[in-house]
Task: structure prediction
Amino acid sequence: MAARYQVSGSTSAAISTSVESGIRAGTLVPGDALPAVRALAGELGVSPATVAKAYQDLRHRGLVATAGRHGTRVRPRPPVATRRAALAPPPRPGTRDLSAGHPDRRLLPPLGPHLAALAAEFGSPTGYADAAVLPELAAVARERLTADGVPAAELTVTGGALDGIERLLAAHLRPGDAVAVEDPGWANLLDLVAALGLRTVGVPVDDDGPSVAGVRAALAAGVRALVVTSRAQNPTGAAVSAERAAALRTLLAGRADLLLIEDDHAAELARVPLHPLAGATPAWAFVRSVSKPYGPDLRLAVLAGDEATVARVAGRARVGAGWVSTVLQRLVLSLWRDPATAKLVRRAADGYDRRRDGLVAALAARGVVAHGRTGINVWVPVPDETVAVTALRDAGWSVAPGSLYRIAAAPAIRLTVSSLDEPDLPALADAVARATHPVQGRAPY
Result:
């Protein structure tokens, strides 16, 4: 914990508020350790039970995490607005930033022409009574999902993939329930689960998706939901194979106590076949975002599922945000219908594949094992994340430490290829090889 910040309070609520204030002010930053329970109790003159209750409240709200001998620390992305806390140290000036995980802006389709065409077509403004899922958008979405083997009779839209997942978890689960998530997995999802007061149960991932043994163990642990990334898994690039999907469908068949959520965030950018699990359980949802292929500012995802699950998501939206802007829906529909845009998305997918596959091959040629079957990220197991991140930073490359994405998985670093050009790959592979000890064989994540 930062030496300049002193936790205060004589009740559990006051102690919790003091820590939250420190996080908002930025004097407690992600990764900072809080005092041990007994040590803080002695400093404040309160009972250890009072401090323990405060820490428990902070954990339930996703502000801190307890990691065994590492103590209680501020989470990487606590769900409160901060004045100057950051997820990770900013890239050093002059380094190439491979840590962000964003798509390449150079490969995103232009929105201006579509917005101009929509402006010319608009008639009377939409009223509250008319705001819903546009039938035209729903029809095209059903066609696209059905072509990939996803049942889409019941469908709604949400404000992006994470918004859809949040609504699903909030509608089905209660604080304290356990959620099975991929390990390593999407950092935003890990933080969301914590912010909802839910417990994470990590499921190991390999190149073919969540392991069957890991899912079986999570089910035995009593998880109420399972979140699976269909393709372009962040951070490992895994994609659920046909064989893995068949095994998981058999394992999950008829589990009425489980909500199955599939996240296909890469959508058209993933150039491998989709092998969905949709329908394996009575309660299920398949979420497909448009942000990666068409632009991060397009906060829209299509959500298909069983009738009850879709009704719950749509119902919660009506009593909250209400609906996803019909202007945004019309823009997405225009992009979907445009052959020129489809060509640009295919070009982007090909470009990402060349960069990612090229980097994995270049690392292999230098004796470094790396994973990246699909998507825009490459996952490199390393003996020590701090050493590897620091060495690469000194060599001019900023990468993300694997600790942001791991629960119990082995150390690694994540490299995002979207800002790279193919001529960059040999120099980057050389730098990674120098910064890491080569890992022999196929190591588990």
Notes: The first helix runs from residue 12 to 25. The longest strand covers residues 199-206. The radius of gyration is 23 Å.
